[in-house]
Amino acid sequence: MRDVVVTGVGMTRFGKFLDRGIRSLAEEAVRSALEDAGVEPAGVQIAFFSNAVGGLITGQEMIPGQAALRHTGVLGVPLFNVENACASASSAFHLAWMTVASGMNDVALAVGAEKLTHPDKTVSFRAIGTAVDLEQLHKLTATTEGDKGGGAPQDGQEKRSFFMDVYATMAREYMRSSGATVEDFAEVAVKNHLHGTLNPYAQYREAVTRQDVLASREIAGPLTLLMCSPIGDGAAAAVLCSRQAARRLEVRNPVYVRASVVVSGRDRDPDEETAVERAAERAYEAAGVAPSDLDVVEVHDAAAPAELMVYEELGLCGKGEGPGLLASGDTRLGGRQPVNPSGGLLSKGHPIGATGIGQIVEVVWQLRGQAGDRQVDGARIGLTENGGGFLGTDPAAMSVHLFSR
Amino acid sequence: MRDVVVTGVGMTRFGKFLDRGIRSLAEEAVRSALEDAGVEPAGVQIAFFSNAVGGLITGQEMIPGQAALRHTGVLGVPLFNVENACASASSAFHLAWMTVASGMNDVALAVGAEKLTHPDKTVSFRAIGTAVDLEQLHKLTATTEGDKGGGAPQDGQEKRSFFMDVYATMAREYMRSSGATVEDFAEVAVKNHLHGTLNPYAQYREAVTRQDVLASREIAGPLTLLMCSPIGDGAAAAVLCSRQAARRLEVRNPVYVRASVVVSGRDRDPDEETAVERAAERAYEAAGVAPSDLDVVEVHDAAAPAELMVYEELGLCGKGEGPGLLASGDTRLGGRQPVNPSGGLLSKGHPIGATGIGQIVEVVWQLRGQAGDRQVDGARIGLTENGGGFLGTDPAAMSVHLFSR
């Protein structure tokens, strides 16, 4: 297996761009990534494109990648549209990694793009709600069409959110098992929104207080609006090269993929390893890295409590110690192991088909020392964790990536 | 690069199964393929699932593979949902091949499943019509919602079919350049429907005459109903193994993947190579095989004229010689190089996300000598050609696979 180097990354700001289509977003991210890598479009040998719900939002149910990349100059090469719900982009990145690591190609492009905003917000909610086994959805919810959606409503509308219901259930269980309080969840949102103020690519850049979070509208108890990731649009892209190709491109600040892992969820017993644990274990083993080695971490905080659970699942702390780790300040910028310096999904945003590569872009910038005001000093090793969908007790897809400079 | 062996294949009959869901179809195909391979579900190391329009037909917009395979026992492994319109399944197969060929995994599963039938046929047509760059669709058609669909209407309803419009335009151009006549196109349908009578997995098993084809309802001149592939449901699956794993499984009749190629379409000049030509050229080169070496061929006859054009693009005959090759009888069962012994998309059917693996299943059966009444005697080398979507002048995705026993 060959070393794989991330030689270029690019992304749009995440946000609500009702006037921009997936193509426009994808083109901006691809242009930035290729320029960053010093790769001409014709130099790309294979491409993986991730988009999760474009069919429902824009009508482009099939070949979204070919449509989005049509004018970028990369077409002609093998191109695969890859979907794994909210883990679509890290899945596309994984396949790009696989083709380079295996020696099949020297230069691969991974692009994630999503448009979630729609003039009719129920369309967005309904789209997000399809990231579960539909049979399960039908069993668990007895609601009208308009109520099926997921994600956090961002206005005064009363919407039940199936997805946030799932997160709420997990949050309540976690409160029981760990002693976490709703205030702990609020502090996750406070931290990540504070980080987001430092990130020009974040959807939300306003600091919030614990009181703001607790006082914001309840979505699904104990979750309030500010504990839920927002609806948004965006794109992110990465160029992956073999070490030889990176040398040829005279890459000055190579970032190496130390491990790339994707697993699917399954109906597991409560005492079996979670999907995050399975993916992280494989990643640490492949990279020869321990949790304590991590300098910077981006996790899938689609809802605030998830960040605390993932601390434990990634081994950043012991079982039930998530709230304590947060309270210690270790995971804040300036702390020992900053988590979600980008602002995370809560503040940076969560355009689902772009999110996973968005996390990778952040970690690459951090490892290169290019993260501006939110730079983690001397970061050498970084991890991203990106989950997608729900399937019984686990996410439907889970991805963990490890990078080093 | 390692040799890759197809150790198991399975498929459902293609047809209209209004009472069956994608899960039921996929489970049948996967069970057959695993049984054929002698592989337990737990022996699968990675899976690729293709489905193109399930979101529009069933509502399962995301994680269709996880939902469909939930009870098969394969979950837990890396699983990727792959889409490339009508070439989705061959794209999934290609990625499964890549991971085994590259040494990343020893046992990979590729599954394609699609449900196109819907109580409201306009839903099916609309779904198929999304396999083009949507901007292009909006430019080229000035129709109502219900008119956007593709595929061939199978009842008396008057439907314009955008997809068949594209095929009709290509057909008229081909008539001009090659001298092909509408009778030639009819003869393709006659041949493939005759083959379909011999295939228990085919959607249509009735022989038709040239007169039947010419007299059937016009879809888009010169195409009549019987020159167009039908709307249908189905699933197909394949197990791919390294040579070492195949030996361990004591595979008695190994079929080798000699070449696996996927390319994307691009806006090309008329004098540039087509996507089929580009893909075929690479496949022949990788396999060290010439067109004259092929014993059996399955091509993407979504509309009858396409088969004649593909004869030329694959090098089975020279430019403009497609009609002559057909007339020679060489491509009929019993001829020198039978094409679409399965009945092809016209007769076997075209559940789009399953089609490409369906072709591969047929070729594997042919190379093993398991094709029953439609067996091509002594077939040793086979090719599949599977295209997906439209993008300007080319299919959006094109795949060519070569197999040998």
What topology does this entry show?
2 copies of one chain form a homodimer.
Chain A: E1 4-11, H1 22-37, E2 46-50, H2 54-58, H3 64-68, E3 79-83, H4 88-101, E4 107-114, H5 121-128, H6 134-140, H7 162-178, H8 182-196, H9 210-215, E5 218-220, E6 223-224, E7 234-242, H10 243-248, E8 255-264, H11 275-287, E9 296-298, H12 304-313, H13 322-328, H14 344-347, H15 352-368, E10 381-388, E11 397-404
Described by strand count, sense and barrel closure, the largest sheet of chain A is: 9 strands, mixed
Low-confidence stretches of chain A: 142-158
**Measured distance between first and last alpha carbons of chain A:** 18 Å
> How many whole angstroms does the radius of gyration of chain A measure?
19 Å
Question: How many alpha or pi helices of chain A?
Answer: 15
What is the helix/strand order of chain A?
EHEHHEHEHHHHHEEEHEHEHHHHEE
Number of strands of chain A: 11
Strand arrangement in the largest pleated sheet of chain A: 3-2-4-7-1-8-11-10-9
Percent in strands of chain A: 15-25%
What's the assembly state of these chains?
homodimer
Kindly report the greatest chain-chain contact and the residue count on each side: A-B, 58 and 58 residues
Shape of chain A: globular
Calculate the mean pLDDT score of chain A and round it.
Answer: 93
Q: Which secondary-structure class do the elements of chain A indicate?
A: alpha/beta
Q: Considering DSSP H and I runs of 4 or more, what fraction of the residues of chain A is helical?
A: 25-40%
